[in-house]
Specification:
The chain is of the alpha+beta class and about 525 residues long. The chain has two domains: about 130 residues, Orthogonal Bundle (Multiheme cytochrome fold); about 300 residues, Alpha-Beta Complex (paralog of FGE (formylglycine-generating enzyme)). Helices cover about 30% and strands about 10% of the residues. It is built from 17 helices and twelve strands. The strands form three sheets. The protein has a five-stranded antiparallel β-sheet with strand order 1-2-5-12-6. Strands 10-9-7-11 form a four-stranded mixed β-sheet, with helices on one face. It has a three-stranded mixed β-sheet with strand order 3-4-8, covered by helices on one side. Strand 1 and strand 2 form a beta hairpin.
Length: about 525
Amino acid sequence: MTKKKHIVAWFILGVSLGISLLLAIITTYNYTSTDAYCQSCHIHTKADESWPLSVHVNNESGVTVHCVDCHLPRKKGFHQWKSKVILGVKDLYSYITKDSASIDWESKQQLENAVKYIPNESCKECHTNLFPKNVTDDGVTAHLYYTEKEEVLNLQCISCHLDAGHAIPNYSHKKLTGIPGMNVTNKTLFTSPTVVQSFDSFTEQIPGTAVSFTMKAIPGGTFKMGSPEKESFRKEDEGPIREVTISPFYMAEIEVTWDQYWAFYSETYSEGRTSPELVYKNNSSNPDVDGISGPTPPFGFPDQGWGGVDRPAITMTYYAAETFCQWLSKKTGKIYRLPTEAEWEYAARGGTETPYFFEGNPKDFSSQGFWHKFFDPDTTVINRYVAYELNSKNKTKEPSQIAANPFGLKNMLGNVMEYCSDYYQPDAYAKTETKVKDPKGPASGEERVVRGGNYTLDASELRCAARDYTKHEKWLRTDPQQPKSIWWYSDIKGIGFRVVCEKESALSKTLNDSNTKY
């Protein structure tokens, strides 16, 4: 009997301890799931301030969506506990080791970062009906596309609703109305383009607008195109090295700005879609058309709320960039176009033969490699010339923040990728002679060359010889329109372009219909 009493006592004690432990765990879980507790560790002032302003709190229904509702998987179980522990450890580590004042909230709220911390199933758990009565026609189209392509394309709700949990000033995913920057009055409009009388740098004036921009005279010369086999981070498509001769030309000092692009948009934009085959029978500088049909309105603000004016215009397609060049050529009487890949690399190097146009080894600037897991790379030199992963704060920079290369060109590396007119082929260099003059690349292909890298990339990918190419379908992944836009990309922000002008056309004394408006 005594033995049985001991067993019963231990059983009761065990059950009591188990229940107490379970209650303690539940109480701890609930306490650590409150908004106040989350904010006690995060101490992100801007995050705390933007949450009550979002539609997840400030809405007509009176429902408040809490931190854990979005940042943890909604279905309870091991996966939720695992996510909670992982995020909790990260938050505690950051709380102890980092200065909250140094946290760049603008960078943290960008989509590329947000997708790491918002499980898509959390959105779907609450938003079970994607077609409520008040949804717009555009919303119906977008949600139909989402339901059809979610698993195939790995689509996420926050791709279109990034501001749902934290209010973001100037964020919008509705179709743009009006023309940004065009409501400024008392501007003096140019009546004629700049007349160029010698091969020197000049400031172009776009007739009918208040917009001007600097074109740098790039002297002709011969250079080694590509990278040597021993260059750090070299890729196969960067060789073999060729000796390339380039004729003199003009290149824009900076990438095409929003001021320039909105001027083009204001004169050419349309609600319809124009097929590229109807616009281009030859090439962008010699189209067999009488008028120019420009972009349709984009969804939201394509400047991402970072600001316009002289920041680079971004998210437009290659076709849109070529159409801009066509419009600019009509407006000025000169031949403006996109640079060839050879012209771009020649201009980027500025007469140098090193990995960058400035001193330094890519290994010293790059964050890749074992040692850089523990030691930050040396950014003293590269920070002067390049907007990239370590200094951009996840957005583009104005030209005034970047020093020019030896040819006087700014942001040739980093900031935004720039379109070249060449079709991309990985073995393009091997298919041409070792000595060539003014190469124009392959005669056909599916994707176009882009050069220079962008603000999100590591220094290893920003070398003068580094090559990349468009990913047309990938960059339109979340565009729900049918057919998809030929003007604006929905899934790439770090893409823009820079124009070149042919020397002979600039020095010509005859300006063809330069004052014509379209």
